[in-house]
Structures are given as C-alpha cells and as structure tokens.
Amino acid sequence: MIDIRNTAPTPPGTANVVAVDGASMVFNEGRSNEVDALCDIDLVIRPGEFVSLIGPSGCGKSTLLRLIANLLSPSSGTVLVNGKSAHQARVDQDYGMAFQQSGLFEWRSVEKNIELPLELKGWKKAARRARSTEMLELVKLSDFAEHMPWQLSGGMQQRVAIARALAAHPALLLMDEPFGALDEMTREHMQTELLRICAAAGTTVVFVTHSIPEAVYLSSRVVVMSPRPGRITGVIDVPLGSDRGEDTREDDTFYKLITEVREALRASETGGSSGCGNSSWSASTFSRISCRRPRRSGVPCSIGLTTSGMRCTSPA
Ligand SMILES: Nc1ncnc2c1ncn2[C@@H]1O[C@H](COP(=O)(O)OP(=O)(O)OP(=O)(O)O)[C@@H](O)[C@H]1O
Ligand SMILES: [Mg+2]
Questions:
Q1: Ligand 1 test: best mutation among 61, 208, 224, most atoms within 8 Å of CB?
Q2: Ligand 2 centroid distance, CA of 260 (Å)
Q3: Given this model, what pLDDT does residue 247 score?
Q4: Which class for 247: exposed (0-12), middle (13-18), buried (19 or more C-beta within 10 A)?
Q5: Residue 61 pLDDT more than 50?
Q6: In a domain, 43, yes or no
Q7: How many domains does the chain have?
Q8: Residue 82, domain member (yes or no)
Q9: Which of 203-207, 242-246, 312-316 is modeled with the greatest confidence?
Q10: What is the pLDDT of residues 74-90, one digit of tens each?
Q11: Distance between CA 200 and CA 196 in Å, rounded?
Q12: d(CA 98, CA 163)
C-alpha cells in the first residue's frame, strides 16, 4: 500500500527545513509559449530527512528544487526554508547545491572551486585548503587538485561539484541528478558516502533523480510526481533504517520498495491531467490521496481512488 502523505510525522517543537505551501509555477504566463510547470505543491521536509523527487522528464522536479533554492519565484504559493523566506535563506547561504550541470568556474582550479563556498563564509586559507583536500579524497580526485575543470571528464567535473556542495557541511543540500554522469560503481560509492556524510552532519537533503533504486537506497521518503504540470501524486516512506550499505541493495524490502515506487510512477503517468488543478488520475494502486481541488475553487477535498477511477469522498 502506498502511503500518500507529503508530510512526515512531526516531533513536537521541530522546525521545518523546507515548507512549500500551495506552490504553482507558470513560465511565460499569458504568452503563447506559456508552460504550466508545477501545480499546487505542498511539501514539508523536517530536519535530517532525505527526500527524493522522482517523476517523468519535464514534470517539474528541477523547477521545484529551484523554487526551494530561490533561483525562481513561484507564480503562486509560498516557499520557506529554515522558517524564513527562500530569498533570505539564499542570502544566508543556508544550503549547498549540486545540479545537473557541474557549474564549475572554468578559471578556478579544482581545489579553488571547492574552496569557494568556504571563502564566501570567511574561512581562513589553511582551513579551506584542509577541507578541500579532505573533500577531494572523498570524491577520489586527490591527484587533480590543481587541474582546471576543462581538463577533467564530465563525471569528474560532477564529482568536484559534489565536493564543493558538501564542503561547508550545509544543513540543507539541494541536489539535482548529481550522480547522473557517473559510472555505476562510482555512483554507488558516492551514494553510500553521501548517506554517511549526511548522517554524520545531520544534513537534510532534497534529491532529484530518475533512478528508482537510487531514490529508494538514499531516501527516508520518495516523493512521486505526475507528468506536467507536476503534482505530488504519492509519497512513499522508506523504512530501510539508517545503517544502509551494500547489503541493503540485496534486501527483499529494498526490492519491494522499488516495485512500490515503480507502480506509483506508472499510476501517476497513466492518469494524466489537462491543466493545473484538473486532477484526473485513475490509479488502482493508490488507496487514498489527499489533494486539493483547484485553488481558484478554494474547496479542498479528500479523494478516494478505486480501480475504476476517482471519487471525491469528503469535503475537507
Ligand atoms: N526557464 C524556463 N522557461 C520556460 N519553461 C521552463 C523553464 N524551466 C523549465 N521550463 C519548463 O518547465 C517544465 C518542467 O521543467 P523541469 O526542468 O523542472 O523538469 P524536470 O522534471 O526537471 O525534467 P528532467 O527530468 O528532464 O530534468 C518543462 O516543460 C520545461 O520546459
Ligand atoms: Mg530536471
């Protein structure tokens, strides 16, 4: 059974790291090239959670991450990070980012790229160098500290970007398919290392991926999104414990969860929808979904799904 919630249980007094409330994103609004990218997203992430966003290409995963990072502003709704506006969180450098493209500065060496966020935070030179050395060991690039980014392969550049994102041990990490360019063995190694680092530092992570096994291996919750305009159609808890390693990948529960996420993705794709606020999933695997009617109607409801379709069961 898929547990459709977009909020983890809240320990009393715990602040949210991310709180997205009713966020929609329309690009080029009112123009002929208008794109309804995200629709009515509600998502709360608590400290120490590892939340993966998964969904078909173009469903708005990167857009949602960019809203959290304040690289975009929502067309409607609000985004809070660490209890303040996403803009203030960006100014305060509350998070590290590693996106699809490495985004390295071509004129800075590998180690100087990694040291950049530390410079911005005012770290002394020796401390910066010690940390970049440590991070280069982590991503297995110690021999390339003085190279320039253009002297590295795409996968190596991506590992430098990950090292840079992790260097200042940010409390929140936003990662957009950061391992997509890596070979399988390096990818699995980086996944395990990422978990280790985040567990040690108590880091909260929002992670975009196309890989179901990667999402399950890493996450405490997997958020499943529908095709564009992206909505949250399912949230799957991943009870694999905090001590995950190579054995986890052989675990029966791991395979069961992979199947669960795959079915949730299939269900979200077969439903389809014609516009923001127009829910029309017909998902046999969804037992129950809490969603909202279009904002403009202002009438939230609870929707029960059966194998034959969808019915609104109760006004909320
Ligand atoms: N700056 C922009 N201007 C106009 N449209 C945009 C812009 N950024 C994204 N879009 C559109 O918004 C939709 C969602 O894009 P987004 O990049 O968030 O998808 P995604 O889920 O990350 O896809 P992928 O898995 O392929 O990376 C797409 O239709 C895309 O064309
Ligand atoms: Mg993307």
A1: 61
A2: 22
A3: 93
A4: exposed
A5: yes
A6: yes
A7: 1
A8: yes
A9: 203-207
A10: 999 999 999 999 999 99
A11: 6
A12: 9
Confidence of residue 279 (pLDDT cuts 50, 70, 90): very low
Domain assignment present for 35: yes
* C-alpha pair distances (Å), 290 with each of 126, 166, 262, 315: 52, 35, 20, 11
Determine the Cα–Cα distance for residues 202 and 105; give it in Å rounded to an integer: 28
Q: Which residues span the domain enclosing 253?
A: 2-51+60-91+221-312
Residue whose token pair is 């608590």: 46
**Dist. CA 61 → ligand 2 center (Å):** 6
Could you tell which of 28, 35, 73 is best to mutate to test the pocket of ligand 1, judged by most ligand atoms within 8 Å of the CB?
35
CA distance 294 to 128: 49
**Sign of the C-alpha dihedral, residues 244, 206, 173, 112?**
positive
Give the residue whose CA is nearest to atom 2 of ligand 1: 27
Which of 161, 186, 189 has its CA nearest to residue 176?
Answer: 161
Is residue 272 a part of any domain in this protein?
yes
* Nearest atom (ligand 1) to Cα of 65: 18
Mean pLDDT of 89-115: 91
For the ranges 48-52, 100-104, 194-198, the maximum mean pLDDT occurs at 48-52
Distance, CA 72 to ligand 1 centroid (Å)? 12
Q: Which atom number of ligand 1 is nearest to the Cα of residue 63? A: 18
